[in-house]
Structures are given as structure tokens and as C-alpha cells.
Amino acid sequence: MPIGQRVCMAAAVAAVAVLVAACGSSPRPDPTPLEPLKPQIAGKEVWRHALSNVRFPMRVATAGGHFTLADSDGTVLALAADTGRELWRGDAGAKLSAGVGSDGRYAAVVTVDNELVVLDAGKPLWRSRLAARVVTPPLVAGERVFVQGIDRAVTAFDVLDGRKIWALSRPGGDPLTLSQPGVMLPWKDTLVVGQGPRLVGVDPLRGSIRWETAVASPRGTNEVERLADLVGPAARIGDTICSRAFQAAVGCVAAERGVLQWTKPIGGTEGVAADDDYVFGVDASDRITAWKRASGETAWTSERFLYRDLSAPAVVGRTLVFGDKEGWLHFVDRADGQPLLRLSTGSKPVVGAPVRVGSTLLVVTANGNVVAFRPE
Known about the structure:
By secondary structure, the protein is mainly β. The chain has a domain at 58-179: 7 Propeller (Methylamine Dehydrogenase, Chain H), CATH 2.130.10. 0% of the residues lie in helices and 49% in strands. The chain has no helices and 34 strands. The strands form nine sheets. A four-stranded antiparallel beta sheet has the order 3-34-33-32, with no helix packed on it.
């Protein structure tokens, strides 16, 4: 969902989860012009691949030491990180609404017809009809496929045969949820998911809740104003998981017992990144903020990229990397936000957060350009 657009109610039924979609109510300011930049670090494009367009919130999977990705038409493929060589290619058989989850061998996507499709090295293995629409990429781990619907209910399937193992949903659900990817990631032997403003630790074998912690305290006069759904990607650093509650807060949780370490009220609609020292994110105006990971204290902010529709960030060495709606990839110093390098992917918006395997950084654009860079 584009940053900065107003949230509106797409449907409302008492005691039923409601989709929230992006609805423009006022023009967004023009993007801040880019300043002249003398590169402070070296970096170059190393390979490029072409897909059809990408019109769903796709995330590139990196398990297995290669990139697994997909396009809107249902093509799913794996690319070697160093050369871009195609390792395998498959077809989900329909247009996609969510993907890609992969453990390096099995890949999982969801179609617009609410079918979960699992492929084994590119060959379709099984399909399963889902009860709710899905926009969060599935998670493939521990010989299971975990799927999170827009109602934030989670279902586990056997990766080999598609057998449904368990399902977890909150009694009564949340009054509103987002039509935007949520939080779902592994931590040791725990599945961590976002349900409303809560981060929840789940037993992946049984689907039982081990702990849950609120990252935000929703406030407002109506359900839309109180919406604080956790949005992905979340950041996992050691035993800490940090995440953003939609337009409400950013916070970090100690995953061993689900203890809230800190939370800071701040708007924003994109996920966060983190390293040993900082947590990074952008607000709805594309102001970049770095918080100290231990305390949540603000370390620095930058307004150099306002209204450029920045992607969720990635941390690469000493740099913090964002894509924008004009296809630029921005490298800034993680310690103070100073621009270090700017590289072009073309003229179309960058889709999702940049991802890295080894020394190769990958970004995908809305028109299907898959571009690999190697910062030096």
C-alpha cells in the first residue's frame, strides 16, 4: 500500500473483520528533489533479470543461498545470487496475491483465487483452497507451510502433502485488519506472528500460544483511528524482534518470553529493519528515523527523502538501503543518515524491501525488473 495515502473502510459488518484499503483523500506533496551526490562508497549493478509486472506485495525469499521470487502472472523462479543464473522456474497457474515463502527447496505462493500453491524446485506439488484472502507471504520452515490471512488467522500445512495441521485465530477477531502484509517469522522453535497490535509467540507444532505482547496501545474515537495492525517486515536481531504497528508505534520485544522492551509512538505504514545498534523505519511522510535498539531513544532523523514513497529498509554493512517510487536505490550511513551512494534500477517504483544474499543486494520494480547490485 502506497505510503501516505489515507486509510478508509472498504467494508463494515458488526463483529466481523473488515478490510482496510488505501483511499486517497488529498494530493500527496511532490517528492523532495534529490540533492547532487558525490558517491562516498563504491557500488555497481552486476546482473539483471526480467519478469512481468509485480502488482502484489511480493517479498523475495533468500533461504538456500539464492533468491526466490515471483511475478503477478504466477511465474515463480529461483536465481543464483552471484550471477543471476536461473536455477528453476515454475508456474502457479494463476495470478498471485501473495508470495514468496521458501526454505530453499519448497516455495509457496497464494493466488487471487485464494489457493495456496506449493512448488518443489519449480514443480507444482499441491494446492489447497483457503478460507480468507491472503496478502502476507507464506512462511516455509520445519517441513511446514504457515499462511496468514488478512484476518490475521494463521494456518499450518504439511509441506509434503498439504495436510492441514492446525489453525489459530483470535476469538471474535479484531474489528479491523489491513489489506497489507503482516508479521510472520521464525525465532528458534517459535513461530512469531502479528495479530492486531500484538506480537504473538506460537508453538509451530501445535498452534498453541506461548506468549503475546502488545507493541501499541490503540487510541481514537472510532475503529479506523484505533487501527494498529502490525505490518511487515519485522526485524529479528538475536533474541529481539522489532516491528511497526500501522500508523501507531514502533517497538521491540524480547522473544524468549515475549517481554516488551520499549515502544515509541510514531506514524508509518512500512516495516522496519534493525542491526545490533539501531532500529530503522520511515514514517508516512518518508522521514527516516533511527532508534537505539537497547532503549528506543531516537539516534537520528533525516528529511532528505520526504514524499519519495520509500520502501521498507535493509541494513547492508555500514549502510541503510531504501528504494523509492522513481526507481532509485538510496544508500545512507546507518550511523547518521548521511547519503553515501545512489543507484538507478530504472524509472518504476521499487517493490518491497531490498534483500541480500552474501554480497549481492537485490531489488524488484513494479514493471518486473529484477536488479542485483554489489556495494563495495
